[in-house]
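Record 1 of the preview.
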Amino acid sequence: MTDDAYEHDLQQVVKSLQGAGCDAFLRGEGRSRFVFAEYRGRAIEVYQDGNAVYLEFFDEGAEQASKDKREPNYDLATQHALAWLRQRGTMNL
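->
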């Protein structure tokens, strides 16, 4: 995957999350870019490594991810990101 294709995929995730009411934007440079999104105190990071899309979940006030998850594509990653950001309390993904 080219850097341009990676950037495009991440921008699509940002648009989906913003369209659902989340604060979302890109951080980092080049292949180290990732999506950062927040909603009601929870945060999530989304990025690709190899053939998988990874999500790191941050509970309110946490400095380290409370859990992480691997998905095969951006569509599933975006769905799980939205579900987790909107969920209050613990959610098993």
